[in-house]
Design goal:
By secondary structure, the protein is of the alpha/beta class. It is built from 19 helices and 32 strands. It binds coenzyme A (COA) and adenosine monophosphate (AMP).
Length: about 625
């Protein structure tokens, strides 16, 4: 089938198109309501279907004769350990882990926070929560206690599941003190905390609240799957918005399962039984969709990799794993490829491995820059496919659909809209712009299955954040253009969100932390282009008058504060002290102008600027520090 036929079908008859995709899954009761629209044109999918996502991802395959096939491989170069689970073993383990949670009173609709490293127990925990019809909220292990506390207060979990530690290349990160601190900071107190003790660090348990995972599991009995409706929530995943407070994206069971199952063949061209590897972390949406749910819903084998693309032990790590397990589809972020390219420019380490089973390399998380794409294509001899998506959608909005019709690759483009997504480039008045003209990337409603319909605990937030600016459309927050061949080019965020090593961060949130420093009067955080991480944050700060503190001291203190408040993944290093910030007459800081100056790009000084003299003043400071030419 051609891409165009598939896409046109999804646009002309969305309900028919997605009903057909839904038939690929085993429902307890097949939905009658495929698509229901509300007054704003927002789509709700499979609302009355009865199902359980963990059942579809595990029990179904055992019943269908896939029980002895590997479901999950754990490969941990940081601990020198490998293990695996067949579908039967994983199903049993998930059923007992669900029993362990049920013994602590977890029932349908309860929230469970999972703050874990990349070990199989993280995946097991997610599926166990899903098995009970409860709602998981995985918090990336690199977030600091205050970030975890915000999520505890918002999601109000009955239970927190954690491990004694995570392992970074050069250090063991003890998780339990971080969890204890977060619970101390939070208003909401979870009833229980389950701790998976790892040999690299022993966690101290708080009597009455904390439980040892393995002892609790030993006493637990396997439980069955609780039926849920297609519209019932599967998980909450927090993501950075333009304000300091993260948004809890709510994912519904039905649409999510259908979209991910469809994507495995249509986008990634894998079959049940194939080896699929998303080198990411379960704390991010890529990890949710393509380490856990997508591959398992499709009957593939997934890989839980506890390591980095470089340093564990070298820049051949990606290729070693692909060769060792016969990976057919590899998916990671451009920053990982850039790190490999930096360490091994001639790809000598790649050549050591047999990559004959690897068919296509997929990239997302940030725009795949053309030089990295060219290097990887040349070195690997494989198609290198960029695809664009967001936490909010849970799967790709634009892609080069390898299982439908592979299309010519255009460097810098994530190719064409995925069936179901009506992608438009609009100006600020909501008018479509001509081909090749940049604008706001918007998605015409209704959105296809899996996309968010709610922000957890704040019904207005969803509509305000995404639906108000361009009526009738979902505003993606990204800007870009569509060329005359219909290829979409996503050029970057048009809001105050930045992307550091494929991780989405809010400049507003970093600014809030900087503002707590006693010497700081005001600040602006901007994204500085970075060869490895894509972008890194930079703080431009104005000190309170009379402050004599040295710039290097402010810098060190801000680094420490941001690591403690948000986490090391912020990669915050640079602080520049300025006499004043450029502002409009209404007091809005000109962050975009500042970012363009710092990144050596053409910049505009708006006519509304309060005092144009501030710009040359700032350029001079940056020049003295050799931050601009
Ligand atoms: N727990 C605790 N700390 C963590 C962590 C975790 N789960 N993950 C990262 N960190 C820390 C790191 O130790 C590092 O701390 P440091 O400043 O003290 O060294 C900091 O956060 C930054 O981490 P990272 O961005 O991973 O940088 P790095 O220099 O260690 O590695 C790359 C660079 C390119 C190898 C790495 O960014 C990478 O693998 N990126 C892939 C991106 C990815 O998976 N994105 C997900 C979306 S698809
Ligand atoms: P997250 O929700 O963390 O997955 O981040 C989503 C954001 O990452 C998007 O809004 C984009 O800004 C950026 N992004 C992800 N994938 C791509 C891509 N392939 N091309 C360009 N930007 C991307």
């Amino acid at each position: 089938m051609s891409y165009q036929t598939e896409y046109d079908h999804s646009m002309k008859d969305p309900a028919g198109f997605w009903r057909k995709q839904a038939e690929a899954l085993e429902w307890f009761k097949f939905p009658e309501q495929i698509l229901s629209l509300d007054k704003d044109g927002l789509g709700y999918w499979f609302a009355d279907g009865e199902m359980n996502t963990a059942y579809m991802a595990l029990d179904h395959h055992v019943k269908a004769g896939r029980g002895n096939q590997l479901a999950l491989i754990y490969d941990s170069p940081v601990t020198n350990f490998k293990s695996h689970y067949t579908y039967t073993e994983l199903t049993d383990m998930v059923a007992r882990t669900a029993g362990m949670l049920a013994n602590l009173g977890v029932v349908k609709g309860d929230r469970v926070i999972i703050y874990m490293p990349m070990i199989p127990e993280s995946v097991i925990a997610m599926l166990a929560v899903a098995r009970l019809g409860a709602i998981h909220s995985v918090v990336f292990g690199g977030f600091a206690p205050p970030e975890l506390a915000v999520r505890i207060d918002d999601a109000k979990p009955k239970v927190i599941m954690t491990a004694s530690c995570g392992i970074e290349v050069k250090r063991v990160v003890e998780y339990k003190p971080l969890v204890d601190h977060a619970i101390e900071l939070a208003q909401h107190k979870p009833q229980s905390c389950i701790v998976y003790q790892r040999p690299q660090a022993a966690a101290t348990l708080v009597a009455g609240r904390d439980h040892d995972w393995k002892s609790l599991l030993a006493k637990a009995k396997a439980v069955g799957c609780t039926p849920v409706k297609g519209s019932d929530p599967l998980y909450i995943l927090y993501t950075s918005g333009t304000t300091g407070k993260p948004k809890g994206v709510l994912r519904e069971n039905g649409g999510h399962a259908v979209a991910l199952k469809y994507s495995m063949k249509a986008i990634y061209n894998v079959e049940p039984g194939d080896m699929y590897w998303a080198c990411s972390d379960v704390g991010w949406v890529v990890g949710h969709s393509y380490i856990v749910y997508g591959p398992l819903l499709h009957g593939c084998t997934t890989i839980v990799y506890e390591g980095k693309p470089v340093m564990t032990p070298d820049a051949g790590a990606l290729w070693r794993v692909c060769a060792e397990y016969g990976v057919k589809a590899l998916f990671t972020a451009p920053t990982a490829f850039r790190a490999v390219k930096k360490e091994d420019p001639q790809a000598e380490l790649m050549k050591k491995y047999d990559l004959s089973k690897l068919q296509v390399i997929y990239s997302a998380g940030e725009r795949l820059d053309p030089p990295t794409q060219a290097w990887l294509t040349e070195q690997s001899g494989k198609p290198v496919v960029d695809h664009w998506w967001q936490t909010e959608t849970g799967w790709a909005i634009t892609a080069n659909m390898q299982g439908v019709e592979p299309m010519p690759i255009k460097p810098g483009s994530s190719t064409v809209p995925v069936p179901g997504f009506n992608v438009r480039i609009l100006d600020e008045n909501g008018q479509q712009v001509p081909a090749g003209t940049q604008g706001y990337i918007a998605l015409k409603l209704p959105l296809p299955p899996s996309c968010l319909n709610h922000v957890w605990g704040d019904e207005n937030k969803f509509r305000e954040s995404y639906l108000t600016f361009l009526p009738g459309h979902y505003t993606s927050g990204d800007g870009g253009y569509i060329d005359e061949d219909g290829y979409v080019f996503v050029m970057g965020r048009v809001d105050d969100v930045i992307n550091v090593a494929g991780h989405r961060l809010s400049t507003g949130e970093i600014e809030e932390v900087i503002a707590t420093h006693p010497a700081v009067a005001e600040c602006a955080v901007i994204a500085r282009d970075d060869d490895l991480k894509g972008q890194v944050p930079m703080g431009l700060v104005v000190l309170k008058s009379g402050m004599t503190i040295a710039e290097t001291d402010v810098q060190q203190q801000l680094i420490a504060r941001i690591r403690e408040s948000i986490g090391a993944i912020t990669c915050y290093k640079d602080t520049v002290v300025l006499a004043r910030l450029p502002k409009t007459r209404s007091g809005k800081t000109l962050r975009k102008t500042l970012a363009n100056i710092v990144n050596g790009k053409e910049y505009m000084v708006p006519s509304t600027i309060d005092d144009p003299g501030v710009i040359p003043e700032i350029i001079e400071v940056l020049r003295t520090k050799k931050l601009v030419k």
